[in-house]
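Entry for magnesium ion complex. Fields follow.
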Amino acid sequence: MTKSPYEISQLTGIDSEAAADLFFRAREALKKDNQISELWEMATAIEKQRLDAKKFTTGAEAIDNMLLGGIETDAITEVYGEFGAGKSQLSHTFAVSVQLPEDKKGLSKDGEDVRVAWIDTENTFRPERIRAIAIRFGLDPDKVMSNIKVARVHNTVEQMDALEQIEKVIKSENIKLIVVDSAIGLFRGEYIGRGNLSNRQGAISRFVHLGEKIAMAYHLAVIYTNQVQSDPSQMFGDPTKSVGGRVVEHTSTYRIYLKKSGKFRVAVMKDSPHHPDGECVYGVTEGGVVDKVLKEAEIKEAEKVKKAAKKDIEEEVEL
Ligand SMILES: Nc1ncnc2c1ncn2[C@@H]1O[C@H](COP(=O)(O)OP(=O)(O)OP(=O)(O)O)[C@@H](O)[C@H]1O
Ligand SMILES: [Mg+2]
């Protein structure tokens, strides 16, 4: 149900009418099975799906509060920022915190195993970070590790394939979180130059939209990380190099911008349909993402970093 008639037609070679027919038949079957709703539904039903969405902790109460509770299922959260900003550290923390029991702000209900699928496009997944973060949360590191599946992908075709493969086992394996770190790095590397821009956008769009459909259909959380350059003049050479972020931006339900400056790390909430924009200071330790208590003398300096982060966002050109 996550393939459009157009995609079915492209993949199988059958004509578009037959593909549309297949699509509608699949829709009917899933409706009978109560797996999807009618196309037209009451506003209250949509409200219910939003209320049924679950949230799990980011590890820092300040970020949780900014997100009105934590990372949400049935949604895509884009974590973006510069090199070293903390995107992968947040992702590692989420891969552990989602496994916490519900009463500790995780998604595990009645002791069931909650699983995570991690698509690693830059070889930055680190088991030792997972183990250290598990210990911080009081979870068994072996158990936490055994609940995480990793696909190390090397090109955009493998990346798409990894998402398509995981879709088939989401239900049976109780996957509640999919992390893609980074979501568009490989696309930037493969589709080089101005002449390839629209192909790049198209390919990114297919990938991020599949993630969106999966998040909604299976009621899980999707995290996309995205490396951006806050100062476009620093992108020496090819100015089209980083283009592609906009597609992710438009697909993401929530966007968290991360900035590191001096000894402060700031997270800013951007463009959410119902959250007031907010920003907060947090820390990264051996145990993952944590709250940072500011000393009196640090408050002013931290405020400056928050302001700088908000300015980055305002000045965001094409990412
Ligand atoms: N064990 C640890 N304890 C404390 N801080 C750590 C630890 N491991 C990593 N960090 C911090 O996290 C930073 C790296 O952050 P991270 O890898 O999340 O960046 P990123 O945003 O993913 O960058 P990139 O765009 O290059 O992927 C390090 O510079 C360090 O400050
Ligand atoms: Mg990273």
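NOTE: The pocket of magnesium ion (ligand 2) is lined by residues 87-88, 124, 181 (CB under 6 Å).
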